[in-house]
Design a protein that fits this description.
- This protein has about 110 residues and is α+β, with helices and mostly antiparallel strands.
- It has one domain: GIY-YIG endonuclease, CATH 3.40.1440.10.
- It is globular and about 35 Å long.
- The protein starts with 5 loop residues before the first strand and ends in a 9-residue tail after the last helix.
Length: about 110
């Protein structure tokens, strides 16, 4: 049986005031996209500079990852904070656990 990796994740900004929930099949690539997307003024993550990973969960099936993303997006901030603090009580930025951080833009 083939195993796939899909992720539901939560990002924040440097001051940890804003939360963004997303889904991807490549967490490292997606973190780079958020980080380098600062020139996209219409993007939520670029507007609020949300590219610090504070929580993520792997799923085998994309439908499960998307379903959980939608569920989390419907939660109050207090419930999202509880989810983050179950695994990351100090709100450490987890980007370096996934990849070299900050990423280097390649031409």
């Amino acid at each position: 049986m083939r195993h796939y990796n899909f992720y539901t994740y939560i990002l924040t900004n440097y001051t940890k005031k804003v939360l963004y929930t997303g889904v991807t099949n490549d967490l490292e690539r997606r973190l780079c996209e958020h980080y380098f997307g600062l020139d996209q003024k219409d993007s939520f993550t670029s507007k609020y500079k949300c590219y610090y990973l504070v929580w993520y969960e792997r799923h085998q099936y994309i439908n499960n990852a998307i379903e959980y993303e939608k569920e989390i997006k419907g939660w109050l901030r207090s419930k999202k904070i509880k989810l983050i603090e179950q695994d990351n009580p100090n709100w450490n930025f987890l980007n370096k656990d996934i990849m070299e951080w900050p990423p280097v833009r390649t031409p």
